[in-house]
Amino acid sequence: MPPENVEVAGLREHERLLKGQLQRQELLLQRLQYWDQPADTNQARVNQSQDREYTDCSQLFTSGFKSSGFYRIKSSRVYCDMSEGGGWTVIQRRVNGTETFNRSWVEYKDGFGDMNAESGEFWLGNDNLHHITAQGNYSLRIHLEDFEGGQRYAEYKNFRVADEKDHYRLAFGAYAGTAGDALSGSFQVGVSEWASHQGMKFSTYDRDNDNYKGNCAQEDEGGWWFNKCHSANLNGLYYPSGHYSAVTDNGVVWYTWRGWWYSLKTSVMKLRPTDFKIDTADDPNAVNRGPPS
Ligand SMILES: [Ca+2]
Q: Residue 200 C-alpha to ligand 1 middle, in angstroms?
């Protein structure tokens, strides 16, 4: 073999080795990305394109991912609720009290809870809330259930969470729904001054940013946008049955529906761009009506 051919053969061999290494590293990388995935929710994510960064669940929905489950958007793992028109990025879920929501500033910042089970309880994290809502105009939809089988919802336009420097300050716009506008505290004259959550900073037991001489997060046992202290606290203490008595109103509270002394069974908070267009053909909940025959 002439020397130049030996050199080419050597380079080819080297190329083959490198390609093999690359393939193995890619596989490893893929496995690392999915290592925390339970088998049953793997499907949606595995099929998710790796070369595209989704801004939220609404983009995934319009890209053809129509089943609820865990997905990846930007740098975080999220639960997408593809019901109720689809495209909802879930930011909070309480269903059975498995997870404690009385957590530190850092835990609320990064998020906590069960991000594996389909109905796990979690908080997506204040940094994530900020990053998602800084991308555009988002609506917040809150789904609530009591222990008697009742269901209500509250929706707010222009939901926005500031960054950590501004203590994850809350802003929201017009209300619509059936649960009442507890967030603004406008249900009763004179109440909003101390009960409104508009413009409030986030507080945790170890970071008191509220307007109260004491520490709302400590007394009410959860992190929230407390004022002095609240008319809604969906991160409060979970009680196994609705009515409760305590030194203070520390339950999972939505005042305008069940009052301060009833702790709700279910709370789900989720986000979607306000201008999201629901295509009824895409809506898995829509009743399919064929043309008259
Ligand atoms: Ca205080």
A: 12
CB-count burial class (<10 Å; 0-12, 13-18, 19+) for 275 = exposed
Gap from CA of 221 to ligand 1 centroid (Å): 14
In a domain, 107, yes or no: yes
Full residue range of the structural domain in which residue 115 is found:
57-273
Q: pLDDT tens digits for 54-76?
A: 999 999 999 999 999 999 998 79
Distance 171 CA to ligand 1 centre (A): 20
User: Could you tell me the pTM of the whole model?
Assistant: 0.80
Establish if 69 belongs to a structural domain. yes
> Which residues crowd ion ligand 1, with CB under 5 Å?
208, 210, 212
Reported as a single tens digit per residue, the pLDDT across 117-135 is 999 999 999 999 999 999 9
Q: Which CATH number do you get for residue 222?
A: 3.90.215.10
> What number of other Cβ atoms are within 10 A of residue 12's Cβ?
10
The total number of structural domains that make up the chain: 1
Residue 213 alpha carbon to ligand 1 centre in Å: 5
What is the distance in A from the centroid of ligand 1 to the CA of 203?
9
